[in-house]
Amino acid sequence: MDEILLLETVERYIKGEMTSQEKAFFEEIRKKDPAVDQLVVEHTFLFHELEKQADIKAYKHSLYEVENKLTEEGVIRKEQLKGKAKIIFLWKKYKRSIAVAASIAGLVSIVTTVLISSYNNNLGKSNITYLMGKIQMTERKVAQLDNKIKEDAKLKNPTNPNFRATGFLIDGKGFIITNAHVVNRMKTIYVENSKGEYFTAQAVYSDVNSDLAVLKITDTAYKTIYNLPYSINKSNSSLGEQIFTLGYPRNEIVYGEGYVSAKSGNEGDSTAYQISVSVNPGNSGGPVLNTKGEIIGIITSKNSTADGVVFATKSKNIYTLLESLKKSGDTLSIKIPNNAGLRGLEREKQVEKMEEFVFMVVGN
Length: 364
Hints:
By secondary structure, the protein is an alpha+beta fold. The chain has two domains: 2-128, no CATH class; 156-364, Thrombin, subunit H. The protein is 37% helix and 23% strand. Helix 1 packs across helix 3 (34-72) and helix 2 packs across helix 3. The radius of gyration is 29 Å and the shape is elongated.
């Protein structure tokens, strides 16, 4: 349905049915999202070709009208008109337009194929895929472009973020853990909670080796949250241990469940786990919890050549990260939660209580 709404919005733009404010907002999106710009270009070409075909059809209809009128008046006879001759006449008249249209269509196809091939070749250089999602228009509440586009031009999120990932609180004062590869791609950072509230944030420390980063919510609208109901595990988890995840591969929080499938990560990395769970771009930085409601890891990446092979840096790396932060001379006071508020609860209740502390991380 989102794709249909996007196509309808593009059609309104091409037909000039948008207001000046809507048009300006949509053109800004075109500049920032090549996929949308390409869609507009292709559909503009398609609309023009359809208009040409409609003109040709109308012209042919006029010819038949004249032919019938002349036949009825006895000026010409049907047997004088040969079908083959009419086809040759039309081909000679319109072959240039048809050739140009075919050339343009072929060029668009070739350019698109080259771009896609280049992109795929770059991805193929590694079998590891980071799970930070590039936000496409169809994922970014496309209905905003149609039913709510006027409203969105004035909304609290004016940056039109290009990337999306996940993070979770380690201190209710506004300190969030996510991946280093997430914040290293973002110049401006916002976080959004499960209630749809946006807050400005900034990266205060990151470590590429553990692929972890600490964010601090700097927005004055944020209220400190007390008594986070979970703990950060310092010990290693067991092979086969049941786990669940929460993250933002889409514009709402998504639950996944699986198990620890290896005690080491990619290429035997002892600082990470391999877990079997379904994830998608946007899950980067999401917490991995065991049945006791303890955070045992943070999702970082997946194997792009095998389904369900996901890697999560071990939660004890958070303690190492914060020690490094202290040694760097930073005076931030971060208190890691050590509560058992999720222990013993049914899974649905654990997820319900946990949702409040998992954030979508967006930026550009």
